[in-house]
Amino acid sequence: MRIAIVGAGIVGAATAYELAADGHEVSVFEQRGSAAEEASFASAGLLAPALLTPWAHPAMGAAARRRLWSRGQTLPSLVRGAGSAGLAWRWRWAQAGRSPQAPAQLAALQQLDQYSLARTRTLAQQFEVDIETSRGTLVLLRRPECLQALQPALQLLRDAGMVVTDVDADTARLIEPGLSGDTPLAGALHAPDGEAGNCRLFALVLRQAAQDLGAQFMFGANVRALASAPTGLQLAGESAPRRFDAVVLCAGLASAALLRPLGPRLPMAAMHGYTISAPLREETHAPQGAVIDPLHRLIITRQGQRVRVSGGAELGHGGGAQHAPTLQTLYLALSGWFPGGALTSSPQVQVWRGARPMLPDGAPVLGASGLAGLWLNTGHGACGWAQACGSARALADAVAARAPAVDLQPFALTRF
């Protein structure tokens, strides 16, 4: 089939590769100048366990009986531009966290995460590429009472197949020798099969692999509208639509606006977050894997010769201005947990603010749209990197009328 893909972030690049590998004639349309220049550009990097990612799912900050995060912010911050729509979206997020369907959806997400991690590892091995992988994930517990509050949520995660063990502070520092001895630490949760990697690097690898199979990438191509019956899309500056046998929407935040004229309403919001990437200073003082600080809802990962700390959850555009208190929290957390591990004063430090395409229940929309020829693979939120390769392979199987390895029903558009 002739298939168009809208968007060339990590999800779009992975989808292009999988469809091209299946023998389809693939064309990718991306409004930016290169692949992975928006939400995929400087992501936190956590691949697994994806459900431990801050803001992965609203149930992780809902009622205390199943709260993963011990204290602190449990709802996204409203910034300038959020308005009443942002307030309404945040209410839907809170409601989804208390929904009776939340445990089942967490289990479905866990299956997608596991499948995607396996697919990502297979592709990285197949391409013989180093994506700056680091192994192991620690969730740091600052106070003894945190662990008791975590038990119900941990049981939920373990029931979903996640291997997470309780360790004391001394063991945590053996796992991550660079952890400061001065920062209070009551214990930690250890996910030995956790993994982090460089999202943008792998997106560029997937783009090249797709091109080697014949896929065409068109950058600076602004898709103005989608078409159904017949299937196609309209590019800005062109008078006639381009016709395809199928269109796959991987356009992140632009997805909702493109769908709206065709009828479906996608309640997507831009949840902005921040990352600070600093050059490695001292190997033994830097993180070896991924570390999550649940009190401040941030992640610190090792990516090759860099250390990256990420956090923040802002609804609205805020005028594009960086939130100084959030950045200060990230700097303090990095130096507090791993003193001497990164050169935070280096001119090579990169500060980035990006928007995650979030849906109010934390899950993507994945599969058929209900409109002939139009498929959806978007809205992965905080877990786009973790879910990209599995979502792409499942979508390609569905397009080919094969049964995907994961159940796509929990991610159907009809849930909204």
- H/E element string? EHEEEHHEHEHEHEEEEEHEEEEHEEEH
Kindly report the CATH topology of the largest domain.
D-Amino Acid Oxidase, Chain A, domain 2
Rg (CA only): 21 Å
According to CATH, what is the class of the largest domain?
Answer: Alpha Beta
> Which band does the percent of strand residues land in?
25-35%
CATH architecture of the largest domain: 2-Layer Sandwich
What does the average pLDDT come to? Answer: 91
Total strands: 19
Structure description:
The structure is a single chain. The protein has 416 residues and is α/β, with parallel strands linked by helices. It folds into 2 domains: 161 residues, FAD/NAD(P)-binding domain, CATH 3.50.50; 204 residues, D-Amino Acid Oxidase, Chain A, domain 2 (2-Layer Sandwich). The chain has 9 helices and 19 strands. The strands form 3 sheets. Strands 3, 4, 5, 6, 7, 13, 14, 15, 16 and 17 form a 10-stranded mixed beta sheet that branches. A hairpin with a 2-residue loop joins β15 and β16. α1 runs parallel beside α9 and α3 packs across α9. The longest helix is centred in the N-terminal third of the chain and has 26 residues. About 2% of the residues have low confidence.
